[in-house]
Amino acid sequence: MAENRRRVADASTLAALAHPVRLDVLSFLMSAGPATASACARAVGDTPSNCSYHLRVLAGHGLVEPAPSTDGRERPWRATVTGLESDLDAADPDVAAGAAAVAAAELRLDFQRAREHLRTRDTLPPQWRGIEAHMTYGLRVTPEEVQALVGQIDALLRPFIAATRTDAPDGSAVVSVSTLAYPRPTFDHREH
Q1: Domain assignments of the chain as residue spans, ordered by start
Q2: Alpha helix (H) ranges present in the chain?
Q3: Of 60, 25, 22, 55, residue with least CA distance to 40
Q4: What single string gives the DSSP state of each residue in 10-58?
Q5: Integer angstrom CA distances of residue 104 from 108, 145, 168
Q6: What was the pLDDT predicted at 117?
Q7: What pLDDT is attached to residue 192?
């Protein structure tokens, strides 16, 4: 699939995305490709009927759509996007609040996934153990430097995005990488 990052700027779509199961299902479809509600349920730890409901909600906002069935009985779904963006500083307070709710749900989901990985990492094949990373840096930078740094990280990671990568070698798997950057003004006690 060609890259299709969607900028979400309406409050109703943001409200729909702020649900953690919907975010997880959409992330799964973007990473793994078309799947049935049952496959989504196994991937995100929910029930097929609940995932089916969430898939219909996502479809109502144009984020997923039915995919062709290989046997005529299954009903797979596919993501229509490869990524999402929203504006925490939107002029419309409902859109800004919705973007904040989605960001909060994404953070909860990221850390939930990381905790689940730590809990189950001993069940992974040996070559996948020990590759995880948790790095935190305290940087002293300007706003422009942060934007440039995040842009460089994005450019470095973008060729590996599961939804768009066509040259993944045998033995590759989906790996989650998150980047957080935020100011810590209470840490800055220097005189300016």
Answers
A1: 5-187
A2: 11-17, 20-32, 37-44, 48-60, 93-120, 143-157
A3: 25
A4: -HHHHHHHTSHHHHHHHHHHHHH-SB-HHHHHHHHTS-HHHHHHHHHHH
A5: 6, 24, 31
A6: 92
A7: 52
* CB of 40 closer than 8 Å to CB of 31: no
- Distance between alpha carbon 31 and the CA centroid of its chain, in Å? 9
Q: Are 27 and 16 in contact (CB under 8 A)?
A: no
Q: For the chain, which residues score pLDDT lower than 70?
A: 188-192
Residue partners of 84: CB distance under 8 A and separation at least 6: 5, 6, 7, 8, 17, 102
- The verdict on domain 5-187 having CATH code 2.40.50.140 is no
Closest CA to 77 of 90, 68, 87: 68
What are residue 174's phi and psi, to 5 degrees?
Answer: -75, 130
Give SS3 for 164.
coil
User: What burial letters (b/e) apply to 2-33, b meaning 16+ CB within 10 Å?
Assistant: eeeebebeebebbebbbbbbbbbbbbbbbbbe
Per-residue pLDDT reduced to its tens digit, 105-135: 999 999 999 999 999 999 999 999 889 998 8
The predicted structure's pLDDT at residue 190: 62
**Which is it for strands 77-79 and 64-66: parallel, antiparallel or unpaired?**
antiparallel
Q: What residues have CB less than 8 Å from 49, skipping those under 6 apart?
A: 37
Q: Which residues lie across from 65 on neighbouring strands?
A: 78
